[in-house]
Amino acid sequence: MKVIIAEKPSVAQGIASVVGTRQRKDGYLMGTDMP
User: Fold this and answer.
1) pLDDT tens for each residue of 1-35
2) What residues pair up with 29 in beta bridges, in sequence order?
3) If we measure between CA atoms, which residue out of 9, 1, 7, 35 comes closest to residue 18?
4) Per UniProt, which keywords does this protein have (predicted)?
5) Helix residue ranges, H only, 1-35
6) Domain spans of the chain, in order of start
7) Residue 9 neighbours by CB distance under 10 Å
8) Half-sphere exposure of 33 toward its Cβ, with a 13 Å CA cutoff?
9) pTM for this structure?
């Protein structure tokens, strides 16, 4: 498991798009296909 912490939601969404995260939860993004 890898955890990536971002201070701003826009930064988190940018990181999520690069690593392929698709699921948006309550206050966090989650994915299972991270390299």
Assistant:
1) 788 899 999 999 999 888 888 788 898 888 876 65
2) 24
3) 35
4) Isomerase
5) 9-19
6) 1-29
7) 10
8) 8
9) 0.68
Rounded to the nearest angstrom, the gap between the alpha carbon of residue 10 and the centroid of all alpha carbons in its chain is 10
What is the C-alpha separation between 31 and 9, in angstroms, rounded? 16
Sign, Cα dihedral of 3, 5, 10, 24: positive
Distance between the two ends of the chain, CA-based, in angstroms? 10
Place of tokens 């296909």: 33
Q: Note whether 11 and 19 are within 8 A (CB).
A: no
Residue type, 20: G
Structure tokens at 3: 């955890």
